[in-house]
Request: fold
Amino acid sequence: MNSKEFKAELTSVTPDIPEHFHDRMEMTLESIASQEAHMKESTKKAIRTAGRYSARTILMAAALAILACAVALAATQWHIFDSLSFMLGTTPPPAADSLMQSNLYQDTVNNVEITVREAGYDGRTLLVEYSYRMLDVDKVYGVTAAEEFGEKLPDGMEPDTILEQLSDEAFDTLAAHNVGWNFDQLWINGQGVDMPTNSGGVYSGSKIPGELIYTEYWRLDNEGIFLHDGVNQITLPIGASVDVETRRSLADQETKMYRMPESGVVTFNYEVKDIASRITSLAPNEEKVLPDVTAKVTDAAFTPLMTYITLDLKVNPDSLTAFIAANGEGPKNEEGEVMWPYGGMDVFQDWICSLELVDGQGNLVFPGHAGQNGYGNEWAEFLYPYMENIPAELYLAPIEDGVADMSQAVRVK
Amino acid sequence: MKAELFGAEARRIEKLLYRVAWSYLGNDQDVEDAVQDALVKAWEKRDTLRDIGQFRPWMTRILTNRCKDMLRRRKRWSFYPLYEDTAQVEMPETENAVTAAMIKLKPELRIVMTLHYVDGYSVSEMAEALGIPEGTVKTRMRNARKQLGRTLLIEWEENV
Reply:
């Protein structure tokens, strides 16, 4: 061929600029312009971080840019706060930038790109957001608010907001790539850590084909594990599937956990910078004696990201006896056998579930936020967002019809 | 630099940004990610641009660096004998001979061929846009044509 023929052929196979590229570029530039209108020093970082990700982030940032700067900051800076707002609150605290780290790992296995996008640690909870992008899948798994709610959108929600939900099909498709959680544990600095109680996560798709986003949190403190100052190695079993034989060979009968496999795991570094000095810990231990239970707060920790409150509970033995006399020894199966015995939590669970954090005057510290985060026969935990200004007095008090009953309040501070 | 001016300058070179990113990354999703990242980074570092007239090469350099970062992270590299000191992106297979030949070029060669033959850039225009000397543009064009000429049996009619 000659030059002209080459030119014609090259022109024919070279793609024109796609519409979606133009749209994406426009959204980015509009977001920059909107952010400039509300520019603060900290917002500049939000733009930088928002730019790392998909159109999902930019869409959210553009939609929220007209609202208060703090809200726009929450939507654009760290995705973990968007996904876990039910736990962390809607506005990232001032310390978020110093605790959160991004772009920690990326690799491809079994045609799935795994990326550890964000991680944070507040001295107790490890938060991690990672994604799976199935490179051979065209389907978009993100469910928008418009798709879910139609015209009946919740107040303040934009139609193209991606919701925190994922279909069974999405999970099945990922599983078909032989990628995903291999073991019910993680490793911290090489040490196996059983899946801590009160851990959890939320999952969603995105606007990118084949992409799933996992936002998870692990209560390392519930396993007595605390990250040290400096670089910590975090290993998650979220890579390629490990076969049964290999799993068996890794089982440690003494610790009842698995040794770290050579493959199938994702390891990244997270650096802790003097977190201990940034936590305020209280141990009021002031007993509140009530008819059915004696309760006291044994631990109240105020970290740069969250507020943790632990209650110690002792059921009144007479109340338990009366409960058993009225309801039997425990719930029964079809054969009439007691599956488990009733305990203190069966007696006082309604009271536990009515408790919320209030100040000395009975005002809710976090209106609209439900802090109850699990309970048992002898304990209960409450979790709240970061508290910038800790009131002089704090209590857990039962709330009925929006009013706190301070006669049953348990002192926190 | 205000966002309005930044946006206007960026929009003027939209096609160039697409071409550069495509030359490195070869798929629309990565191209969009790279350009978005580069725009955000450029905005953050806008104070480093002293002369607005240099926006095009300045922006192109930021984008090129971002593309190279993404290639390194993706670890999709394979080595071709002709350029042992450089890694090539692993792109999808194709039946089109010109496309297949272009894929085998280093990204730096691919972009000058595309800008010249598809978008009509002259040597001086490419030098300015990419922020490289004219001599470098000519060298890259010569090398690209040499390689393509061998593969596609092209008789080049013009000299660079």
